[in-house]
Amino acid sequence: MIDNAESLSGPKALGTFLRTHRERVTPEMVGLPGSPRRRTSGLRREELAQISGISATWYTWIEQGRDVSISASTLDRLAKSLRMEPAAREYLFSLASVKDPQALPSSAAPDAGLKEYVNQLTCPGYLLDSCWNMLAWNPQAGALFSGWLGVDEHPNLLDFMFLHPLARQLVTNWPERAKRVVAEFRAETSHYPHSEAVRQSVLRLRERSNEFSQWWTQQEVLAREGGERRFNHPLSGEIRYRQQTFFPAGYAECKLVMLLPEE
After folding, report:
1. Looking at the whole model, is its pTM more than 0.85?
2. Superfamily of domain 11-96
3. pLDDT tens string 12-42
4. From CA 24, how far away is CA 251, in angstroms rounded?
5. Do residues 249 and 103 touch, judged by C-beta distance below 8 A?
6. What is the tens place of the pLDDT at every residue in 182-230?
7. Which residues, in sequence order, are CB contacts of 181 under 8 Å at separation 6+?
8. CA distances from 206 to 103, 134, 158, 161, 210 (A)
9. Domain HTH cro/C1-type spans what residues (predicted)?
10. Does domain 112-261 have CATH number 3.10.180.10?
């Protein structure tokens, strides 16, 4: 039976997650003696607290879903004591809203296989990193952004929108789209709050573009969404696309943008 009151985040969700994993770990798995008289095969709360070096009472409060502050070091000890796999550890820290100090930075550079996938798309497609640098694009995207992609040595979508003269000609209703782009980029920076590259990208654009600086200071935040994208192409005339954005597995800082032609 499904519990409709089950929480997917917050202290109660964290407590449930820890309890479930505690019940899966046997004393023998962590070097404690087992006993045939035990009522459960999993660890007791007191045992997990002991091997994790924290107070049994405090751990009980965590598992009960009380709103207590938990440090990264405490979560680290609990994850190790419970023999959590990387995905479970990541989820644990996410539930506690704490940054994992041992989290490995994901590589923003796509490998040859991912680039080949982009090339096989039949519609314009390209890969962006956390700063919206263009990491890869296919010939269809190159044709759409002719005069920029393939010309700029280090293409960046934000630079294109605010610093390249072609953008105001190519992008239909440029002021509305550009303002939304700023709000979407601000929303995405919440995923990289300590990224020096992102910070420098914002500072550089604020210095070089009055429009970007003005809209950035307005503190608008909008989710990056699909929808219609219109272009006034110098050779093809008006073109309409439906944008879809995907996040390739294994590339946390990459996003694949596809522009699907509208019929």
Report:
1. no
2. lambda repressor-like DNA-binding domains (1.10.260.40)
3. 889 989 998 999 898 888 888 776 676 777 8
4. 31
5. no
6. 999 988 886 776 678 888 999 999 999 999 999 998 888 887 677 899 9
7. 158, 161
8. 31, 20, 11, 13, 7
9. 42-89
10. no
